[in-house]
Amino acid sequence: MSQMSFSTLGLQPALLESLSSLGYETMTPIQAQSLPPILAGQDVIGQGRTGSGKTAAFGLGLLNRLNAERFQVQALVLCPTRELADQVAREIRRLARATANVKVLTLCGGTPIGPQIGSLEHGAHIIVGTPGRIEDHLRKRTLDLGRLETLVLDEADRMFDMGFESALEAVFGSVPGKRQNLLFSATFPDAIQAVAERHMHNPVRVQVEESHDDSSIRQHFIRLPDEQQRMTALRLLLLQLRPASAVVFCNTKRDTRDLADELCRHGFDALALHGDLDQKERDQTLVRFANQSASILVATDVAARGLDIDALDAVFNYHIARDSDAHTHRIGRTGRAGEQGNAYTLYTGKESHKVVRLEAELDLSIEPESLPPSERLEERAYKAPMVTLQIDGGRKQKVRPGDVLGALTGDNGIAGNQVGRIDIAENWAYVAVAREAAKPALQKLRDGKLKGRSFRVRAI
């Protein structure tokens, strides 16, 4: 399909203005196929992976029919994780930047419900949230979906993997029968088929080819002489490639923890991401990885699904994925936006049958590769370029990114180009600073004031 312009869709002028300001000119394949039926009010099932542009597809659809003067919840977007919900809400707000008075509210678990109830009392047009927390609000009668016009299920397969069926059914039981349903999923298991048959009205099915190809991701399969060489192999590859940003996939939570600890013992800046982390630990881990305070994220498939992790230099399969779909999803995190990505899969002779299966199911021709020379183990592990400082003050204390930047770069402060990403949460803020500036930055924040107040600050 030749590239199509958003201007051919008959969108509201304010949305075209937002798209233009964001530099969005032509549609991705999933947008070109799904937007016409979405804008026509039809139910749509879209099958496409992270990075395919599906968020903008459903975001434009629900914003185009939104009546900002009617202050009621008109659209609900359900996501499997808080991180994805935050990402989706950000994208919808960006698309709505030229539309007056559109209020988007996120309702997710892992944060206190009280402030959310207060926010709901002030009203919202669009809710983005996780199924469990939305179900909580419905049970407490603090959320009214009686006038809902559009229901979106994003990464629906993941919501079923995570056990959200009953919460989803509670939502379906609380929304008007006459509504538009938009369902997006990377895969289409039986559970999704059942939901479509039960709750959707003659949905249009849209499926796009994988957005990555052989030219954007180079796959390397490293055959190990024995199991004991697995950690050595990973260290050698990391020392050779020195990726600024890489994800290492393990199949179990325990392996994830053990491997991250082992990498740290060898001097790497590695973090573990798995299902046993509480919400604050999870948030900290993702902030530190996104702001380049850690170069290596060791994760399970469930923990890493739906996360906003872009521009990875490399993906490592410390263990072969359980099936070809999970393998494709893992390696699809690298090689985005026209950049060359690399995926490395480690396996022993005992796992050769799994490699043969991948060859057949993914139509690959796999040539085992050898490891870099073992002398590399004598090299020092490379450190991440940034360090994260945590400030015990956030949105509630009216702390803004500009306040943090000003406090760091004021009189006798560090240079502006030594300050990286700033993330403001409810009760704390995270700021990345260049490693060489970490000590003076910490001292500057401890000695100075933010919003006329002193806050506790520490490196994490």
UniProtKB/TrEMBL annotation:
The gene is dbpA. NCBIfam families: PRK11776.1. Its EC number is 3.6.4.13. Residues 4-32 form the DEAD-box RNA helicase Q domain. Residues 35-206 form the Helicase ATP-binding domain. It holds the Pfam family DEAD. GO terms for molecular function: ATP binding; hydrolase activity; nucleic acid binding; RNA helicase activity. It catalyses: ATP + H2O = ADP + phosphate + H(+). This is DEAD-box ATP-dependent RNA helicase RhpA. Residues 216-379 form the Helicase C-terminal domain.
